[in-house]
Design brief:
Layout lengths: L3 H22 L9 H22 L4 H11 L11 H25 L1 H11 L14 H18 L3 H18 L7 H7 L6 H5 L6 H4 L9 H6 L28 H6 L8
Helix pairs in contact: 1-7, 2-6, 3-6, 3-7, 4-5, 4-6, 4-7
């Protein structure tokens, strides 16, 4: 896809700016930790993630999708279907895989070690949507590449999914006060900030719920949907109970966190 990098960067910056502005004008919860310090850490992580992906992974999912299309790899390249339906099918498959991947990162101890840095954030806002360990990003890319080859995802579907996934991750981590009637209607079709905030609760049974990023349907179908936190959004505690000190959550501490402490 021509100018893909420019489109993705412009989309990311635009959504980040809009959500950040909304957070400033209508915050959902008061922050408990200094925003500048958190944003510096989370911003540094996304820069590091970008560098790691560019230099460690020579072939990204969209490039592999183009290669699959040329060579006829994957189920969708072997069947006669309208192009738009192939894009839609591939998008939905990716969305389901990301849901299952997210559950696996909570269930499997060695993967949870990587993923828990995302849950160590003591507040939740737009910057939390980019707080992922570089090794988790690489694993996620490998999973997407395997799906690309198996289903023969069209390159357009891969690029669209990546752009929308980045946008929804920023949106549903946002600290935005969306009116309850609007949230109740919107979460029928899209994961809202109130819905995803439950997933960042310090209570384990709430942490292990609401795994979706884009569409909320997989949580409902798979029995992992939880409508509200038991303590309410204003009183709920965000993060992990074993990581409550800002001194534990600097950039270097987070990068080595998967290799420290007990399993589980």
């Amino acid at each position: 896809m021509p100018h893909e990098t420019t489109v993705r960067l412009a989309s990311f910056l635009s959504v980040f700016a809009v959500v950040a502005l909304f957070e400033y004008l209508a915050p959902r919860r008061p922050l408990t930790t200094p925003k500048g310090q958190r944003w510096l850490v989370n911003g540094s992580i996304v820069v590091l993630d970008t560098l790691v992906v560019r230099y460690v992974s020579p072939l990204l999912p969209n490039g592999l999708a183009e290669l699959a299309a040329v060579n006829g790899w994957g189920v969708l390249n072997l069947v006669a279907l309208p192009f738009w339906s192939k894009v839609l099918i591939a998008f939905m498959v990716f969305d389901l895989i990301i849901y299952l991947q997210h559950r696996a990162f909570h269930r499997i101890p060695i993967l949870w070690r990587l993923h828990r840095i995302h849950h160590t954030d003591l507040d939740l806002d737009v910057s939390s949507g980019i707080r992922f360990h570089p090794i988790e990003i690489i694993i996620s890319i490998c999973i997407k590449m395997a799906v690309v080859v198996l289903i023969g995802a069209p390159p357009l579907a891969v690029v669209l999914f990546e752009i929308i996934l980045n946008a929804t991750s920023l949106f549903n981590h946002g600290n935005m006060a969306i009116p309850l009637p609007v949230d109740r209607w919107l979460r029928l079709f899209l994961v809202t900030p109130d819905m995803h905030r439950v997933h960042h609760s310090v209570i384990p049974r709430e942490t292990d719920s609401n795994f979706c990023f884009n569409f909320p349907w997989w949580d409902r179908l798979m029995g992992t949907y939880r409508a509200q936190p038991v303590a309410g959004h204003d009183a709920m505690q965000i993060g992990l109970k074993e990581f409550r000190s800002a001194g534990q959550l600097g950039l270097l501490h987070l990068l080595v966190l998967p290799f420290k402490g007990r399993r589980g």
